[in-house]
Each structure stands twice: as structure tokens, then as C-alpha cells.
């Protein structure tokens, strides 16, 4: 389910990014006689990178839930090892720390 949400959000973000790039980056470049190069570059960079982090976090959450499902199934089937569980916990703690920042 998170994968579908991630894909949908990614599509929406791409549409918004294209609209913002047109409005904030391309129009000032073509309509203004004087363009501050540094400000234009900074604006373009912000538009192109602003929402990539959201999509990455959703995809990471989806991956973690998939691994949790695998751990759960392994525990039911009696195939869960301490090492596998410890690795999952460490990955999840790293992911949680990333999200809280």
C-alpha cells in the first residue's frame, strides 16, 4: 500500500515541480531583462530537489514494512534467527532516527 502511495505522491510531486519550474525558473528567465544568476540557480535547485526527500522516506517505510512482514512470517514458520531480528532492529532504529531529523 505504501508503494502505491509513494508512486502516486511521486507523480504529484513531478507535476508540481514542473509547474513550479515554469513559474519560478523559466518565466523569470524569459520575461526579465535582468536575472541574478546566483538567485536563479538557487531557485532552480530548490525547485528540483525540494520534495525528493518525502518520496525517499515513503519508499524506505515501504521497504521496512516489507521486511517486517518477512520477519513476522519467519517467526510464525519458526525460521526467525536472532541475528536476522537484530539486523532488522538496527535498520529500523537507523530509519527511525532518519525520520525524526
| Pattern of helices and strands | HHHH
What is the radius of gyration?
21 Å
- Sheet bearing the most strands, described? none
Q: Determine the fraction of residues in helical runs and give it as a percent range.
A: over 70%
Number of helices: 4
Number of strands: 0
Morphology: elongated
Explain this structure to me?
- By secondary structure, the chain is mainly α.
- The chain has four helices and no strands.
- It has helices spanning 2-31, 37-49, 52-77, 82-100.
- α1 packs antiparallel against α2 (37-49), α1 packs antiparallel against α3 (52-77) and α3 (52-77) packs antiparallel against α4 (82-100).
- The model has no long low-confidence stretch (mean pLDDT 79).
What's the layout of helices and strands?
Layout: H1 2-31, H2 37-49, H3 52-77, H4 82-100
Helix pairs in contact: 1-2, 1-3, 3-4
Provide tags for this entry:
101 residues, 4 helices, elongated
Amino acid at each position: 500500500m505504501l508503494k502505491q502511495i509513494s508512486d502516486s505522491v511521486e507523480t504529484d510531486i513531478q507535476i508540481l515541480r514542473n509547474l513550479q519550474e515554469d513559474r519560478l525558473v523559466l518565466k523569470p528567465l524569459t520575461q526579465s531583462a535582468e536575472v541574478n544568476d546566483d538567485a536563479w540557480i538557487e531557485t532552480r535547485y530548490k525547485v528540483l530537489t525540494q520534495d525528493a526527500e518525502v518520496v525517499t522516506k515513503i519508499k524506505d517505510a515501504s521497504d521496512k514494512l516489507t521486511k517486517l512482514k518477512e520477519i513476522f512470517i519467519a517467526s510464525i514458520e519458526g525460521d526467525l534467527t536472532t541475528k536476522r531480528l537484530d539486523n532488522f532492529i538496527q535498520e529500523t532504529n537507523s530509519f527511525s532516527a532518519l525520520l525524526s531529523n
